[in-house]
Design brief:
Elements: H1 48-53, H2 81-87, H3 100-124, H4 146-158, H5 172-181, H6 183-190, H7 199-215, H8 219-240
Helix pairs in contact: 3-4, 3-6, 3-7, 3-8, 4-5, 5-7, 7-8
């Protein structure tokens, strides 16, 4: 099975035991996870016993390309004109008190700290990193972008290499969701042509990173990101008290 935590160390109350070979590389995590991951692994699958029960000569029906929305359906009553008018008003302004270079710096710090957090987690538990011919071997956290660390951690989870016991409160069910919530931050820091983010959004992105550090049980990363959140919140408040700063 290679380096990393052996299959046998999975919690004994897990109803489903899968070998790494049983999950295709590109299969989505939510489609196969067993009881420990919050899904019934039997649902929607064809088992050997099911096939035998149908007798020989049975050919599995090919999936239909019909759009389910063309079949029986319902339509909701339209909202009242008053409701629609209220929805279509000009969107309210959300406070934006941070300059673009400040936002870049803040989000860059979160990305760097999360990359180190993932690097340390993988190194601590000796999880394998697949060798790819077009990428350098990983020696430092910055050898992979945050999106690549997220992909690696998700693959380790879907291959059942990461046992619940090493995550905060055993939150294996929430693990992939927490990782995906942090991905917007990488895109926000990467694309320079994006519009300015409002203050709440910036704080939300820091908080998403903080949740990653928490579920990986990295106290030092949590402390760093919590301090960054507090500093950013304080800076936003100072700007609010000085409305002419960005004028």
């Amino acid at each position: 099975m290679g380096p990393g935590i052996p299959q046998s160390q999975w919690d004994s109350n897990s109803r489903v035991r899968m070998s790494p070979e049983s999950c295709p590389w590109d299969e989505d995590a939510s489609s196969w996870m067993g009881s420990e991951y919050g899904h019934d692994s039997h649902e929607g699958r064809t088992t050997m016993s099911d096939t035998r029960g149908r007798g020989r000569g049975y050919s599995q029906r090919k999936p239909s390309n019909r759009d389910e929305f063309d079949g029986p359906h319902q339509l909701l009553d339209k909202p009242s004109p008053r409701t629609i008018a209220g929805q279509e008003r000009e969107l309210p302004h959300l406070a934006t008190n941070l300059q673009v270079d400040e936002q870049d710096n803040i989000l860059g710090q979160v990305n760097e700290r999360l990359s180190k957090c993932a690097f340390d987690f993988v190194a601590k538990y000796q999880f394998p990193i697949p060798i790819e011919s077009d990428k350098r071997p990983v020696k430092i956290p910055s050898d992979r972008e945050w999106t690549e660390w997220v992909y690696l951690l998700k693959r380790l989870a879907t291959k059942r290499r990461i046992p619940a016991r090493i995550l905060y409160n055993g939150q294996i069910k929430q693990f992939i969701t927490v990782l995906e919530n942090s991905l917007e931050m990488r895109h926000a820091a990467k694309h320079q042509s994006r519009p300015l983010k409002d203050d709440r959004n910036v704080l939300q992105l820091i908080s998403a990173g903080l949740q990653v550090a928490k579920i990986l049980k990295d106290a030092s990363a949590m402390a760093h990101l919590d301090q960054l959140y507090t500093q950013t919140e304080r800076l936003v408040q100072i700007r609010k008290n000085n409305p002419g700063f960005l004028a």
